[in-house]
Design brief:
With 539 residues, the protein is of the alpha/beta class. It folds into 2 domains: 110 residues, Chitobiase/beta-hexosaminidase domain 2-like (Chitobiase, domain 2, 2-Layer Sandwich), CATH 3.30.379; 345 residues, TIM Barrel, CATH 3.20.20.80. The protein contains 14 helices and 16 strands. α2 packs parallel to α3, α9 crosses α10 and α12 packs parallel to α13. The protein is elongated. Belongs to the glycosyl hydrolase 20 family.
Length: 539
């Protein structure tokens, strides 16, 4: 062998040794850095693979993966701790499992949505599992949750099933349209406990199917209340056994309402009913004209019931009691707004029967405002006895009355324009809890009558917060804890102005902007253009 050939052979052997050594080192390194909880190596493999899908080998989350980015969801998650790893994607054959049987509804729903199998309550662990669990942390917000994506699996835990459900909504959005849930830990909870949509189904009849679609939409967005204003001058829209004569032709059956309520409960949404009184009772008065309020001149203001007559209280209480069985949630809206007896310059002279009834009930100095406040208190007592917390519109609370509104009446603040409406700080300063329905931002009034215009998601997103209760000015931050949250509202003043489909399309972005501001108190990280694009991507 020549010297040149010998030298060439020596270099080939050296190079081969180097290649083998490097390859072995990399392989050992990949396994050695994939300890438990890091999502790679043996710790990420299934502990029971015989009956499940074969785990796909995954590189360890070391320098081969960049740190994960926070998921993009609506509403945005409050906290995400990044990690290195491939994340998680749903695949056919993977399982959703629960650690507690109380989470079966959440587990079945998620499995069906992601095309996975629901394996029920089990302690075994397989590759690709999504596990739902109750954390047992009694002191935490029941709507909070933690979601951990690690080792090819997902765990969603929370102190109550509501929080776990919201975690499943985050996961569903993360993987929408073929994406992956990023590696890491999400810790999330809402800023406000009331996140609602109210729909006036009295003036415009909405079908049960349309309402059910809104329930599904609200659930995915982490709303937790749906208000149904189902009695007004133009219609009474749910069938009644106690007073069938007041019900409109176009209505929901009780069976339909039960399905709506059950669907809402599955998505941790409370349905809040409203039978507005003593105004907005035109549909009831049409069937009982003897209860119509009349002035001394014989004029009959629309929708106003005569609260000096005992029969007026009897029929309203009959209805409140009847529908308590249909709506088992803890909240009840009593209305109380725009009673036309108080929208004249001299209520006592215009309606002397009301002035007489006020004096008989509350003393010689009592006013029509006192009588009206007493009416609201009596209706609050009716629903309170049924285990409900009452709520009333802010212009149903009057300044300077000798009769004080019940202490537990929550203020549904919608306007500063009506007679009797006062600045929100007056209610808050008196210690009352308040739900924000600000008509400047959150009122979608069909046909845009008076000064109303259809609200835009951009305006809500950029200019509204729960502290902006009236107009465009925020109340002092010291009242933040008393503001329970907010509700977007759809009103049917000119019901034929839009179809159901147009209403759904019109409120789509306002709903998303509203819940973003109710869930996360921080300044949004995304611009409006980015937020709208995200909403389009999420569907």
């Amino acid at each position: 062998m020549s010297a040149r050939a010998a030298l060439r052979r020596t270099w080939v052997l050296v190079l081969a040794v180097v290649v083998v050594t490097v390859a072995a080192g990399v392989g050992l390194g990949l396994w050695a850095t994939g300890g438990d909880g890091d999502g790679g190596g043996p710790a990420g493999a299934s502990q029971d693979t015989a009956a499940g899908p074969s785990p796909t080998p995954t590189p360890s989350p070391t320098r081969w993966y960049p740190l994960s980015k926070a998921p993009r969801t609506i509403p945005a998650v409050r906290s995400h701790t990044p990690a290195r790893g491939p994340g998680w994607k749903p695949e056919k054959g993977l399982r959703v499992v629960v650690s507690d049987g109380d989470l079966a509804d959440e587990g079945r729903l998620l499995a069906g949505e992601l095309g996975m199998s629901y394996a029920g309550e089990t302690a075994d662990v397989r590759a690709g599992d999504v596990r739902l669990a109750l954390s047992g942390d009694e002191g935490a917000d029941p709507e909070s949750y933690t979601m951990t994506v690690r080792g090819g699996r997902v765990t969603i835990s929370g102190p109550a099933d509501a929080g776990v459900f919201y975690g499943t909504r985050t996961l569903k959005q993360e993987v929408r349209r073929g994406g992956a849930a990023p590696e890491g830990v999400v810790r999330d909870e809402p800023a406000k406990p009331v996140r609602g949509l109210m729909v006036d189904i009295a003036r415009k009849h909405f079908t049960a199917a349309w309402i059910e679609d809104r329930v599904r939409e609200l659930g995915d967005l982490k709303f937790n209340q749906l208000g149904l204003h189902f009695s007004d001058d133009q219609g009474f829209r749910i069938e009644s056994d106690s007073h069938p004569e007041v019900v409109s032709r176009d209505r929901l059956t009780k069976a339909q309402v039960r399905r709506i309520v059950a669907l809402a409960a599955q998505r941790h949404i409370t349905v809040v009913p409203e039978i507005d009184s003593p105004g907005h009772l035109g549909a009831v008065i049409d069937a009982h004209p003897e209860l119509q309020l009349r002035s001394a001149a014989g004029l009959a203001p629309q929708g106003a019931i005569d609260i000096s007559k005992p029969a007026s209280a009897e029929i309203v209480d009959d209805l409140l009691k009847e529908y308590a069985e249909l709506f088992p949630g803890a909240e009840w809206h009593l209305g109380g707004d725009e009673y036309r007896a108080l929208m004249v310059s001299n209520p006592a002279a215009t309606y002397p029967q009301l002035a007489t009834a006020a004096r008989e009930a509350y003393g010689s100095g009592a006013t029509v405002s006192d009588l009206t406040t007493g009416w609201l208190n009596d209706r609050a007592a009716t629903v309170r006895a049924l285990g409900r917390t009452p709520r009333a519109w802010n212009d149903g609370f009057f300044r300077g009355t000798s009769v004080r509104p019940a202490d537990d009446l929550r203020v549904a603040y919608w306007t500063g324009k009506e007679i009797g409406a006062r600045p929100p700080a007056e209610y808050l300063g008196a210690g009352r809890k308040l739900v924000n329905y600000n008509d400047e931002f959150l009122y979608y009034v069909l046909g845009q009558p008076l000064t109303f215009v259809y609200p835009t998601g951009q305006r809500i997103y950029e200019r509204w917060t729960p502290l902006v209760v009236r107009g465009t000015q925020a109340v002092p931050s010291k009242y933040d804890d008393q503001i329970l949250g907010g509700s977007f509202a759809v009103w049917g003043d000119l019901p034929n102005s839009q179809t159901q489909a147009q209403v759904a399309a019109g409120i789509r972005m306002p709903l998303r902007a509203t819940v973003q501001k109710l869930w996360d108190p921080r300044e949004p990280a995304l611009s409006w253009t980015e937020f709208r694009a995200l909403a389009d991507r999420l569907g």
